[in-house]
Design goal:
It contains 14 helices and four strands. By secondary structure, the chain is mostly helical. The chain has a domain of about 180 residues: Cytochrome Bc1 Complex, Chain D, domain 2 (Orthogonal Bundle), CATH 1.10.760.10. The chain is globular, with a radius of gyration of 21 Å. The chain starts with 12 loop residues before the first helix and ends in a 10-residue tail after the last helix.
């Protein structure tokens, strides 16, 4: 996949084939969405613009419904207060807008920003440092982490889960007689996350759907900058038949509070509500920021020190604050950061260089990124918040 040219162009046979394959998973997903939300509303193509994937089978959709309940069940945490969905909030792009770093059990601050789980089925590596490679095994990291959901052991959680009346028979029906185990719990949560398909943005309709008026002039100019002068597409790739907006690689950008000499800190209190503290104020109750070594902690390769995975930019307007530590509050701040050539970290990626963008170019760039919001998000949110289906099949 390589950076594309700034224009929709005629649909090519290969692109059409890829879109048809991707529709399989989308149609299955939103058939379940309509059933569980009590709505027959149909979306044109929730996977438009995403890479092709095999369609989910009926049993996988049954497992996804079980996984959805697990994802939002606070009883899966040690003290019954935290769920996956409390950090990956549907209304906040399945991320968290309320804090720079994630907040775990008993209000403990984690060291990294909450990444979205939208379109996570297409990610080859998971977490910002890529320490997991499977959605099935990934689930156990937050379940066991002492600052996240804090379960003392897999067996402790599974014993409690097997005793919950509303899960009686659910695992057995979804997994051919197998009860709740490390494997089946991980598979159920993974099945739900694979249904979080959120393509079909106005950009996708313009570039891949043949709708020439789906983007306005400013947004089209922003895309030309994105793939050209602004150099964004060097890492956030845009292909001819689909665009995941990530190279799924790791780069040192210099982002992070530890690199910044600041006299004040903007602290989010709630979505859209911030306050400003001086550095002295913060030092009174919080430790000084430390260097997060990123990918190096997984590979021990010196070249990976301070490197983090390139995030997809799909639905990016919904998932602030930004960077691995949430240190940039807005898209405008992110654009400013990259036009400066990134931060002052050692061994910063050579792809990052200062870029001269005037005010109108910066506005066009952020306007384009806001056009990456999926038309599928309302249906995903409705489904996330709808009552659970407790039967053996989803109709």
């Amino acid at each position: 996949m390589s950076p594309g040219q700034p224009g929709p162009g005629p649909a090519q046979p290969a692109a059409q084939t890829a879109r048809r394959a991707a529709r399989g998973i989308a149609r299955c997903v939103f058939a379940v969405s309509a059933a569980t939300a009590g709505s027959n509303a149909a979306l044109a193509d929730p996977a438009l613009g995403l890479p092709p994937r095999a369609a989910l089978s009926r049993i996988e959709l049954v497992r996804a419904e079980l996984g959805r309940q697990l994802f939002f069940d606070r009883r899966l945490s040690f003290n019954g207060t935290m769920s996956c969905g409390m950090c990956h909030v549907p209304e906040e792009g399945f991320a968290s807008n309320a804090s720079q770093q994630a907040v775990g059990i008993e209000g403990r601050s984690l060291r990294r920003n909450t990444p979205t789980v939208l379109n996570v089925a297409w990610m080859s590596d998971l977490f910002l440092d890529g320490r997991e490679h499977s959605l099935v095994t990934q689930a156990w990291s937050p379940l066991l982490h002492p600052d996240e959901m804090a379960n003392p052991s897999p067996g402790h959680l599974l014993a409690r889960l097997r005793g919950m009346a509303d899960y009686a028979g659910r695992f057995e029906r979804a997994f051919g007689g197998r009860s709740a185990s490390m494997d089946t719990l991980g598979e159920a949560l993974a099945a739900y996350q694979r249904t979080l398909v959120a393509g079909d943005s106005r950009f996708d309709r313009w570039r891949y759907g043949g709708q020439s008026q789906a983007l306005d002039a400013q947004e089209r100019r922003g895309f030309a900058l994105f793939t050209g002068k602004a150099r964004c597409a060097l890492c956030h790739l845009v292909g001819d038949s689909y665009a995941h907006f990530t190279d799924q690689r790791y780069h040192v950008t210099g982002a992070g509070a530890a690199w910044q000499a600041r006299t004040s800190i903007e602290v989010p209190l709630a979505p859209g509500v911030n306050t400003t503290l001086s550095v002295t104020d913060r030092e009174a109750y919080d430790r000084a920021p430390v260097h997060d070594l990123g990918r190096w902690e997984i590979t021990l390769d010196p070249r990976d020190r301070y490197a983090f995975r390139t995030p997809s930019l799909r639905n990016v307007a919904r998932t602030g604050p930004y960077m691995h530590d949430g240190s940039l509050p807005t898209l405008e701040a992110v654009v400013d950061f990259y036009t400066r050539g990134g931060g002052p970290a050692p061994d910063r990626s050579p792809l990052l260089v200062p870029i001269a963008l005037d005010a109108s170019e910066r506005q066009a760039l952020t306007a384009f990124m806001r056009a990456l919001d999926s038309q599928a998000l309302p249906a995903l949110i409705r489904r996330a918040r709808s009552p659970y289906a407790s039967g053996a099949a989803v109709r």
